[in-house]
Design brief:
The chain is built from 11 helices and 8 strands. The protein is an alpha/beta fold. It has one domain: TIM Barrel. The longest helix has 17 residues. It is globular.
């Protein structure tokens, strides 16, 4: 999913625009428009757009996903639950990538990683159908050996490591080590490794310095920061901090 003109070692930034739609839906109508946010993110240097179509449509809608596929030049990463409904929507829209995530209606946000090992038989046909349609499949998993090995056996080319425990631990060395070890294991199994959830200016640098990572997906923090600085400025600052963290690899 490398954008044109990016160096091979470039750590990609996928901007999640879900919460622009959350604000829109709070009052109904069309403003603020998540499609406009996607265009702004592209102009500010994002490498891709991420959007989660939830069962309850609490933020993104079916029409939003269709418009993103039609109107945005950047790759679209569709976050989706492992359901027949979402599979049908993904196959109809053909986004660049589909990241399968766990989903519970009562949760405020995604609370943990996908149980790729425990749901192996459920996930296998979805991964196969998406792959056959030319959609790059990613599995959102905790940084655990059992889940990473299951993802590899499922045939998904990509995993996204759940960084929430690290992000909410005030930079725990133990949690960061878990992410590092998980990324190394996944890369050794031939998986492309992404990461995301809870990342912000204060903690992104250490994660960006993990050499196996190819992409970070960040949303809530950027949309919140945009209230104060504007979306473009928030994305550019995040990009700068990611680049600084990645530059430390060569130091």
């Amino acid at each position: 999913m490398t954008a044109p003109g990016r160096a091979p070692g470039h750590l990609r930034l996928g901007v999640n625009i879900d919460h622009v739609a959350t604000i829109r839906n709070a009052r109904g109508g069309d403003h603020p428009c998540p499609i406009r946010a996607a265009h702004a993110a592209a102009a500010a240097g994002a490498d891709g757009i991420t959007a989660h179509l939830r069962e309850d449509r609490r933020h993104m809608t079916d029409a939003d996903i269709a418009r993103l596929v039609r109107e945005i030049a950047l790759p679209l990463n569709l976050e989706m639950a492992a359901t027949h409904e979402m599979l049908a929507i993904a196959l109809a829209n053909r986004p660049h990538a589909a990241c399968i995530v766990p989903e519970r209606r009562a949760e405020r946000t995604t609370e943990g990683g996908l149980d790729a090992a425990g749901q192996f038989n459920t996930l296998k046909p979805l991964v196969e159908r998406l792959g056959e349609a030319g959609i790059r499949v990613s599995l959102f998993v905790a940084p655990e050996v059992r889940q990473i090995e299951a993802a590899a056996r499922l045939g998904a080319p990509v995993i996204e490591l759940h960084t929430g425990p690290y992000a909410h631990s005030d930079g725990s060395v133990d949690e960061l080590c878990r992410l590092r070890e998980a990324a190394a294991l996944a890369a050794g199994l031939g998986l492309e490794v992404h990461a995301g959830h809870g990342l912000g200016f204060a903690n992104v640098g250490a994660v960006a310095a993990i050499p196996e990572l190819a992409e970070l997906n960040i949303g809530h923090f950027l949309i919140g920061e945009a209230v104060f600085t504007g979306l473009a400025a928030a994305i550019r600052e995040m990009r700068a901090r990611m680049d600084a963290g990645r530059a430390g690899l060569a130091a």
